[in-house]
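Known limitations

Files may contain more than one protein. Parsers should not assume a single record per file. Below, a two-record file is shown to illustrate correct handling: read the sequence, read the token line, then continue until end of file.
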Amino acid sequence: MSAHNFENFSEGEWEDRGELAWNEFDWQQYLKQNDKEVARFLALYHQHEGRTERLDEVARLMGWGDEEWAPSEDSADLESESATPPMVAETPPEPATFSDFLDEDFDAVADTYTIHKHPVFIATRGLYQHLYYTWERFLANGNDLNVNLGLSWKLASSLHAGELNAVMAIHALDLGDFTLTICHLKNALSAVNHSLSLLHSLPVSNKAQQGQFFREVQATLFDLREIWLRVMNDCREENRRRLPGEAEE
């Protein structure tokens, strides 16, 4: 990649970063690396299928619980402006859970940070990739199915609505707007509930295949919902923490 020093850049400082030295090829390589991270998340997710602490274990294996993901001194200086407090235990740390990695103020392992590196973005993108692939694979067996085309389109649209609102929520989270994050995640959760209701309405002739498809999609949607509910809880806690200071002003 083009020589450029990214060490002085902190999250949320994009307006002050000046002219970025990367060209199109550099960013394409960066995005390819992000695709590999998403693929790695999905591989771990499938390896831990059926485990009760599936998300927490995958997060640990992704390295999101290591010390390098804790807020740096630079990010600590920004805490009073827009960042949430570090979600790292001060006294003997207990096993990390997925909630520990929801703070938008974590340090990127690589040289530069974009929203692509946020653990919630990687998890959300990966799980939706899995949903789209599962749905495509299900429809590919069209000779054995009797799927209503209108219902099929509605399900695809509800999946897209959930992903879009989740990505917008992650952007709001990264900017420190926790109330907007909550609102977008409410819309995403509504889309997930709509997807679940549509699953029950799928008229297919192959009940065994429908059951396998339903269980796989339902489990993934439940995991997305679990991640987002934890994010919303953290955002509400941060808003409650901020209110006294704002009242004093």
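...continuing to the second record:
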Amino acid sequence: MKSLFTPGIFLMAVAALLHTGLVTPSPLLIAYAFYGGLIAGLLLAWRFHSSRIFIALLLVFLAQQAIAYFSQGRIAASGPGSVALAAIGLLLPFNFVLLSFEQEKGFTFSSLAPAALLLFVESVIVAVLCRPEPSAAAQRALHHAATPPPLPFPTLLAFSAAGIVLLVRFMLFRKPAESGLFWSLSACLLSLRFGGVGRIPAAYFAAAAFILAGAIVETSYLLAYHDELTTLPSRRAFHDALLRLQPPYSIAMLDIDHFKRCNDTYGHDTGDEVLRMIASRLARVTGGGQAYRCGGEEFAVLFPGKTTSEVLDHLEKLRTDIEGSTLRLRGPERRQEARGPDRRNQRPRSRTQGQAIRQLSHVSVPPSSELSVTASIGVATSRGEKLSAEEVITAADKALYRAKATGRNRIETAATAKRRVRSKAADIA
């Protein structure tokens, strides 16, 4: 949730500085900040192929420029400036919602052409609506007010609806881009609320640009340190966490039993669903543990400040949670097609080999509409300063191999080869 709250804290800090009088930035400094954040965001969006953030930054820039141009740099109570404010108050939330539903397609002509055409049409509409009447030129001074008027109800409704949509989409997909769009739109609403022109509105537009640029940085961090499939921290985050560990600590290595067989039988899409299901259980591990995906079907759990005896109960709860979880199959129960030309009739199998493989599949995968899996776990603990983190991981891996070799769906410790925890089926037997 850091990607949701961090931009909001930044926006509240900007509002506090602007309205409490703690700092009074000059209009020139605010203009530098706006264009600096805009250019930085555009370059980052181009470098990381984020067309949605790139277009959102262009929208913020066009909105700021249109209001400043048609308002003649002063708060507009009526006339072209107020019309521009009302038009942008409807178009900006609409475009942000469209960007939220748009898929990232990079900077190709086919992906950018529709957005460019829409921006062009909307710019023409705003220009036509805000065209001043010839008789109004002499009375232009009467169209300005000392304080900004309240926003029209349609503008408030459009921003509220768009904010709800963006917030719901963030809660569903947990992507920093959705959070960036939400808080950037909030900053634009505050800018329009204070008239759209002047020192305070320009500062809010600058905050909107910085929030969008920050969303790209947060997305890059998420891709680098989190696994995209399971949303768990990745191997890089695991190795970074190892550098900060202080004894005592425990490391548990977890591997899904018969995962390759599950992939071969049901396909990789079902395998991905299994990984997500296991990751959701790992994310709720108790005892202060933090789960990581190390690669494939292998995961790690770090327990800072805990010994083996202190984490065994928590690992047993995790093992039973995984064992009791089921995945409802959506399609056919078995893979009906060959996996590809590289595995299609490469070597003729004998009748006995085919029967053995079919029996092996039936043992681990019952013919039902639900699929359940188990996991084997090996755990090791640092002993003072004697063992490095790499040695603890090696000891946990060896314990994991013992758990695999002695029946699977169990926990083994590095201290002894004796079985620590039996599966439910073994206990009943």
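Parsers that stop after the first record will miss the second one. For reference, the second record is described as follows. Residues 114 and 120 are 10 Å apart (CA to CA).
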